[in-house]
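User: I'm putting together a teaching handout on how multi-component assemblies are represented. Below are the sequence lines for each component of a complex, exactly as they appear in our records. Could you produce the 3D structure of the whole assembly as structure tokens, so the students can see both representations side by side? Please keep the chain order the same as the input.
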Amino acid sequence: MQITVTVNGTAHTREVEPRLLLVHFLRDELRLTGTHWGCDTSNCGVCVVQLDGQPVKSCTVLAVMADGREVRTVEGLARGAELDPIQQGFSDKHGLQCGFCTPGMMMTCRALLDRNPDPSDTEIRVAISGQICRCTGYENIVRSVHAAAEIERAAQEVHQ
Amino acid sequence: MQVPAQFDYERATGVAHAIALLTRYGPESRLVAGGHSLIPMMKLRIANPETLIDINDLDELKGISIASADGADALRIGAMVRHTELLESPLAVEHFPILVDAERVIADPVVRNRGTIGGSLCQADPSEDLSAAFTALHAVAVIEGADGRREVSAREFHTGPYQTVVGDAEILVEVRVPIRPGSGSAYEKVERRVGDWAVAAGGAALWLDADTITEVGIGLTAVGAEHFCAAQAEDYLRGGPVTEERFVEAGRIAAEHVRPTADQRGPEDYKRHLAGELTTRALRRAAARAQHGTEA
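Assistant: Of course. Below is the structure of the complete assembly, with chains in the same order as your input.
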């Protein structure tokens, strides 16, 4: 069937089988391979994207269910060469080593900061509790999110 | 790579349309809400619906509110309410903290953004948390079909593992929890790791008049409790005083009547022990909340 999904602000129309999962639609149909595909069982969280602003595990969403809706992926974070604060935070605080979990982590943490500009350690850890990182022990991810929050606070003060 | 078998997809625009689609496509069609139980089962080919009917657009099934009828108030929870929404609901915190306790330990935050209350109940997993919580609260499920709506007690909603009273051409539209004064409620769960299904879990709701228990509900999950209910322990407590000794005894009675099975989450005797201990702990916390407020 024909679906139109807006991904990172651009509407994409494709003919798909109803059984196609959103993660494969993004990776194979749209060639947006920043969204990773891991456990396939909604446990690991590497496939997290935002669907209408909410982080979801795209291995457990059908592409047809995203018809007419908005998806934001890791490719939609940076504006040109300018990194999103969450990306800058992960870079500054070494929130990754191998990078496999990173796109999903950043999409969840981006949504967290959008709702809560100054999350506590616990709030960050709860937010990412459905996602697995085998490199950092999560410590640097928590630091990265704090760093991103600080970058955003500093930017706001400049604006005010 | 896990891929579901082929199926047809329809998107319902309203409850009546969903029922019409279920009627047209018959028993091999299934409703999909959040999809976080059904889609994994379809990927494993345990579920092979011929038609999937998407009810995510059904605004009639959304929202948490207070419904008043015949002078009595009830908390109304739409079937399409996502777990995150119930977890963060001020109405749930105020009236039935057991629901917030339970939601906090259901899966993980990203799954909770998608999974729904109605989907969890209709999936009817024997380890599902809200089934026990709604049993404890004496909740009522509202089911709609072509002939109109009917109400079924949460205690009669499940007919067995993965089976409910919802007919092939019916849809669960909401859950109602009667609001009565003097209530306190709590949920206790033991899991192997964060977000896992329960090894065992139990919820308790108490309605007190001074120190007397006028009504009580105890729901247990993952331990083979009939209808997710510890009816004998409820009978023991109803009408008596709030005391620590009686809560311990109620736990003992609850443990006596469950029928857990050994699996990778634990042996039978351990689950039976947990059923009793978690019943006592939930009762203790429910009583404290009834007497001193939700912060207890």
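A couple of points students might notice: The CA atoms of residues 183 and 207 of chain B lie 4 Å apart. The first helix of chain B runs from residue 15 to 25.
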